[in-house]
Amino acid sequence: MKQKLFTGQLLMDKIIKGAMEAKDVISTTMGPNGGCCALITNNKVRETKDGATIAKSFIGSGDEVEKYGAQLLTDASKKMAEIVGDGSTTVVVLTYEILKAVHKLRTTGKQSFIIESALDFVNKFVKQTIENIAIKVDCNSNYLEQIATVAANDAYIGNNIYELFKQLGNDAMIVVDESKSDKDIIKSQDGYFFERGFISSWFLKP
Q1: How many helices (H) and strands (E) does the chain have?
Q2: pTM given for the model
Q3: Which has the closest alpha carbon to 89: 48, 129, 118?
Q4: Which is more confident, 78 or 150?
């Protein structure tokens, strides 16, 4: 198997190219006015507007280095979805712009440690700014309905999520899934739920 070595400008150009491809696809879903993407799996077409879903399925069409650039963005999207639960498309756009800006600084001769120090400073500043202007949202806040509507891209579903949070509280976990009928069904359950039982009956004590 032949090995290829990429360094310097060529390496960064390929990483940026792969990242740009991922950004261009995933960012089409961003915001309330974003569009949908079609996913084809096992000859089945699925239409979705969820950036996290697109990011999980995105591979890229370039070589391995370009795919690595795309993976930097998709990994950021997945992590955002896991930790926050939203903003998975926005973080893709921001990550790409940071990569592009760093690449531009490197080509002008800026040292890596200077760029890293600048990014650390900006990171702390932005974090503090967000904490200062943040508005706390609980299950009785009207903001919650607006957030749910934007996240679901549907006012009806957003209202249902809002009502469920009012009923179940801030710590509730709400899952939206496809209905097997033409009706909307809302179910709530207290406590914990396991889809599967014990692996072995020996785990049970009489």
Answers
A1: 7, 2
A2: 0.71
A3: 48
A4: 78
